[in-house]
Structure formats: structure tokens, C-alpha cells
Design a protein that fits this description.
de novo design (two linked rop proteins); 3-stranded antiparallel sheet; binds zinc ion
Length: 266
């Protein structure tokens, strides 16, 4: 019977008193579990399968069934603070939604698990804006999936991508071409029918500062970027990039992206 660390991604009521949970396990990828009687007061799973908490689960996998049966569940770390503060709660749900989209049953991804767990921990720190942890998770998620945008050099030719000739504070940028572009690759991308815009260079630099650490498989320092406006601008870049490259848009992203691009030329 597999035993593993896990984080609940989604919960669905099932029959009268049971619960189906989708969880990200560290060593077994995404698992779909039936917790019988989880809603009964005396159930051994009562209060165990909450969102955001670090869990230790044991389940029985039946080869003929899609749902595995939960056999044991323990909370190893509660993250109550994330349930008591709406902006933090929303950021945590956004992380779970992305982890759900980016994980598959039977495909272990310990790095995604560790990133999610560490970013949920950071999100609990009341001294930092919630976007600080969320942006790190989003860029780490892109990096983990081989989708990280090129922010320092040209995404197409890997040469320098200097500021645009008309505005020295901005550089060419195209989600479809992989990120920042030099002038000639921007021309080529346009000719190939891709959308090419521009992005403020300071936002690109903020993102690159975080990606340097994420590429080296470590978390950026907690105080790397703390200014809420800079974080929102970077989050806008990361979520539009994710939106372009993922098959579906996480629900948590839709409201955030409903406003016009925050990095558009004023
Ligand atoms: Zn180029």
C-alpha cells in the first residue's frame, strides 16, 4: 500500500458522508482518493483532508478502479493562517489550481510538490504580501514545466535583446515566441503571425532575478521583491504567459486577468 506525503488539491462530496479528494503526492504524482465516511464526526478522516495542510496518506490502489481507497491519513503540518485571510486564501487556491493542471496520475513530480509546499509555507508569513509567494510559485511552475519565459536575452536567438528604439524603458516581448525578443526576431515573429508587444524592462529584470534561483532549483530569498506594485506587474506577466501556454485558464487567474494588461504601454 503506497504511503506518501500529500497536499489536497480539490475536494468533492461523495455519497452521503464520503469525500473524494484529488491530492498531489510527492512520489506518486496526482492521486484520486475515496475517503469513506470523511464527513462523519467520528471518522478518522474528520478534519484531516483540509486544503493547504501537509498530510501523510496511505491508500490502496485497485488496478480496476480509478479511485484509490484512503486507508490512513494524518496531518503533519496545519496551515491555518491561509484559511483565515482572504487574499492569502485566494493565492493558495491559485497555487493548488495550477498544481492540479500541471500534475498527472502516475507521474511523480517531487520538485513540483516541494515548490508547492514551500510556497504555501511562505504564504503563511503575514509580514510579506501574498503575491510574493504566488509569483515565485508561478515562475517556478513555468520553470518546472520547461516553459519559463526568456526575460534577460532574446528567446529566439539567445543574443542580447536591447530596449526598443522608440522607448528605452521597454523591450519586445511575445508569449508565443517564448518571451523577450531582439528587434530582428521581433520582426520575424510578427511576420510569422505571432503577437508581439513590449514589456517594461524593470518587470523583466524582476522576473529574471527570481528565475536565476529557480533555475538553480532553489527558492529566491523571501525579501527578493516586496513592493506590491512590482509584484502585481510581475504576476500579470507570469499569468498571461501561463494563460497562453496552458490548455485552460485557472479559475483564480480569470478575475486577475480580466483587467487590461498592467504592463501595456501607457
Ligand atoms: Zn533574437
Amino acid at each position: 500500500m503506497p504511503t506518501d506525503r500529500a497536499l489536497v488539491l480539490r475536494r468533492f462530496p461523495y455519497s452521503e458522508s464520503s469525500l473524494v479528494v484529488r491530492a498531489l503526492s510527492r512520489e506518486h504524482g496526482r492521486v484520486h482518493l475515496l475517503a469513506r465516511g470523511a464527513y462523519r464526526m467520528h471518522s478518522r478522516y474528520f478534519g484531516v483532508l483540509d486544503l493547504f495542510d501537509e498530510l501523510e496518506l496511505e491508500w490502496r490502489q485497485s488496478p480496476r478502479r480509478e479511485l484509490a481507497e484512503l486507508r490512513r491519513g494524518d496531518v503533519t503540518r496545519r496551515r491555518r493562517a491561509l484559511r483565515e485571510d482572504l487574499p492569502r486564501y485566494r493565492a493558495a487556491v491559485a497555487m493548488l489550481e495550477l498544481a492540479d493542471l500541471g500534475s498527472r496520475p502516475g507521474r511523480p513530480d517531487p520538485e513540483l510538490y516541494e515548490l508547492l509546499s514551500a510556497c504555501l509555507d511562505r504564504l503563511g508569513d503575514a509580514d510579506r504580501p501574498p503575491d510574493a509567494a504566488l509569483v515565485v510559485f508561478e515562475l517556478g511552475f513555468l520553470q518546472n514545466h520547461g516553459l519559463a519565459p526568456a526575460l534577460a536575452r532574446c528567446a529566439a536567438c539567445d543574443r542580447n535583446a536591447p530596449p526598443t528604439s522608440t522607448d528605452r524603458s521597454r523591450a519586445h516581448f511575445s508569449a508565443g515566441s517564448g518571451g523577450r525578443l531582439c528587434a530582428s526576431c521581433a520582426e520575424e515573429s510578427r511576420a510569422a503571425g505571432r503577437r508581439v508587444g513590449t514589456m517594461p524592462i524593470d518587470v523583466l529584470q524582476d522576473g529574471e532575478a527570481l528565475l536565476v534561483d529557480l533555475r538553480a532549483h532553489r527558492l529566491p530569498p523571501e525579501d527578493a521583491i516586496t513592493d506590491p506594485d512590482r509584484l502585481v506587474a510581475l504576476r500579470d506577466l507570469a499569468e498571461r504567459f501561463l494563460d497562453y501556454h496552458l490548455d485552460s485558464t485557472p479559475k483564480a487567474s480569470r478575475a486577475f486577468l480580466a483587467t487590461p494588461n498592467r504592463n501595456a504601454k501607457p
